[in-house]
Amino acid sequence: MGSMATRALILVKGIVQGVGFRPCIFNLAGSLALKGYVTNTSEGVLIDIEGLRLPEFIERIRSEAPPLSQITDLSITYFPLHGYTGFSIRQSLDCAQGMPFTLVSPDISLCDDCLHELFDPTDRRFLYPFINCTNCGPRYSITRLVPYDRPNTTMVDFTMCSSCRKEYEDPTDRRFHAQPNACAACGPHVEFRVRSSESGLKGGEAIQNTIRMLSEGGIVAVKGLGGFHIACDALNGRAVERLRERKRKSNKPFAVMAPDIANIEKFCSVSKAERETMMSNRRPIVLVRKRDNCLLPHAVSPGNRDIGFMLPYTPLHYLLFHHPLDTKTAPAGPHFNALIMTSGNLSEEPIVHDNDDALSKLADIADGFLLHNRDIFMRVDDSVIRVESRQLGFRSDGEKYRLPKTDREFPEPSSELSFIRRSRGYAPDPIMLCDEGPEVLGCGADLKNTFTLTKGKFAILSQHIGDMENYETLKFYEATLENLKAVYRAQPKAIVHDLHPGYLSTKWAKEYEPRTGEGIMTFGIQHHYAHIGAVMAEHGLNREVIGIAFDGTGYGTDGHLWGGEFFVADIDGFRRAGHLSYIPLPGGEAAIREPWKTAVSSMINAGGDDAWSLLAATGFIEKYGKKNLEQIKIIACSSELSPLSSGAGRLFDAVSAMIGVCDINTFEGEAAMALESSAQEGIPDVYPIELKPGNDCTIVDFSPAILAIARELGQIPKEIIAAKFHNTVARAILTMTTQMAGQYGICDIALSGGTFQNRYLMNMVTTGLSDLGLNVFVNRKVPCNDACISLGQAYLIRERLKREGVR
Description:
Layout: E1 6-15, H1 21-31, E2 35-41, E3 44-51, H2 54-63, E4 70-79, E5 87-89, H3 112-118, H4 162-169, E6 190-194, E7 201-202, H5 203-215, E8 220-223, E9 228-233, H6 237-248, E10 255-257, H7 261-267, E11 268-269, H8 272-279, E12 285-290, E13 306-310, H9 315-322, E14 339-343, H10 355-361, E15 368-372, E16 384-387, E17 417-421, E18 430-437, E19 440-442, E20 452-461, H11 471-487, E21 494-498, H12 504-516, E22 521-525, H13 527-539, E23 545-555, E24 561-570, E25 573-580, E26 583-584, H14 589-593, H15 595-607, H16 611-617, H17 620-624, H18 626-636, E27 644-645, H19 648-658, H20 670-678, E28 690-692, E29 698-701, H21 703-712, H22 718-744, E30 748-752, H23 759-771, E31 775-778, H24 789-803
Parallel strand pairs: 2-5, 8-15, 10-13, 12-16, 19-21, 21-22, 23-30, 25-29, 30-31
Antiparallel strand pairs: 1-3, 1-4, 2-3, 6-7, 6-15, 8-9, 9-14, 10-14, 11-12, 12-13, 16-17, 18-20, 19-20, 23-24, 24-25, 26-27, 28-29
Helix pairs in contact: 5-9, 13-24, 15-16, 15-18, 15-19, 15-21, 19-20, 22-23
């Protein structure tokens, strides 16, 4: 008995636009002699198809989908035959009824096919700095609206020539419906200007002059995919020092771009996993360990064992390394072994993405400007990632262990990735949640801010916004929010903020409902509880967990500054079961910027009557003067001038300053990073601490450790002291967790907070907890620093509202 032809209406959801999905469906249908059509809608890709081999077609959709696509849902409805005579690709539809949405693809690096054409003298796009195809190029940064069609992108101003139009309309061509498709005859162009000029050189001459300026030690602002970079020759020490003086004014490490992995390996040790991450089509900055004989200037990454390296990800980047200077023959090798490629922004402001803004704001930093006229609609900074050498560690018996499995429909990034900053290449990839739920906006914290929108089964995390300290950042925040609300057709029913009354994000959230009159519900979630909530969101947890949140500072429910917290937490709330002992921060924020003041407070707190002998033993009296230290002691005794803090970050600051590693934070977390970098590996010893039982809350007192460190200064190397201190923090966490697991009968442990970006500490803690038979959950899809706060905020309130029947 022969098969009977059937017809189906198939809706495919996920990242299925701008990734070659329709031509893939067109060619698959043709190979199976099926009839009908495929189209983009604001909900996804809609396929109306009929024929004898329809079941085979449905089976092959997922397995043969384009590599950049991510299918999250596929629904099928069967209908009577229509009688189509062929298969076609129809114009996109915007079906806004019922507020459907589709996922937006992140920006993708240049593919190998386009790279080959870029340097092929016989190709019509030879040396064209905006070459792209369906498999690569800008997406999120140029998307104004969905569906992802050219009129909804910043390419709308460029009319395709006949050759580009032919490619764009041919379903068998690699550039079929590649929205940024263009060539030198019809597309964007580059322009080079020196600092004071009103016009400049265009095309190949622009790139050649940029290369010459960089080769001569100049500093150039380069417009990239999601904003401007500030570039200079990374091996030119004078250029790097000049850039640091003009731009950084701190010791914060610079990002570096190399033409290939071989050049990176001249300066750093690169593991197989790190190499694969760097070479992936997302092209993040990856933190890799310096070689002992690293020839890069100290000013590239002062006081740090690691350097953030990335590979080129746009054709313009490749041309800066390989564009011929005098002939149409490519150079024998790259012009540079490495280029500094740091974010083009003023201190604490978002990355600059507009030509006019760059020319005005970066004029005191850059000697020249390499501009282009393809507008960036959504600025997106580079992502920064650390690739763990192991998933969470190895058991002491050598057996590798893994995170507990959870059912996830949405493909996850490698479980070995640890995000420091999640932005270009990853945003706005969603976090898959367990099921449908109400729409909620998590506003985040102030440092390393992101926001999160929940929609359907997804949590959509914004790209890195930055520190909410000025008007420019707030406008960027608002513009990004409005864009993602429009793209995802999100209308939040609730808005969630941090408890800190001084945070700009908190003030903005509290003013949102009165300002808009939208009747939105407003909630506050404690900072460290939100950290734990972010881990729960990633792993689909809604049961009780032991949450360990270690960071610098966050506003506590008792009005003090928290940051070394042990919680029993679930969706409904948390119980504070333990915390690091409070110490005064002399002068508040002044102590955060000047860790030596926190060290003084810690020694006074630990030493009591013997405090002055401690200060003498550490050399503080000689270094800072007794009069100055007496003043700090008076300030520390004033509750009005010195808030109490249980922050783990402040403890690391104090020890870093005590042993002379770093006494001034020129950027957030510098002292703690320097302390980690100085720790000698292979040291097993620990310092004493004291666990003090309180009213349902154990105090973890590091005073005995502070006393022991002061006694050992000058007796043993500071590298060993740093290692012993790290071991002590890890031992304290393991002891507290063991005690809580037994007391509460909980085996699921969630770790979060910026302190866990410390690789030394994280490996010890996760290995130790796993050896105890506990389930360890950490942030993998989002950073563990304050960038994850918004996800935790949104998830916790979303789950509560869902239980209350809110949809």
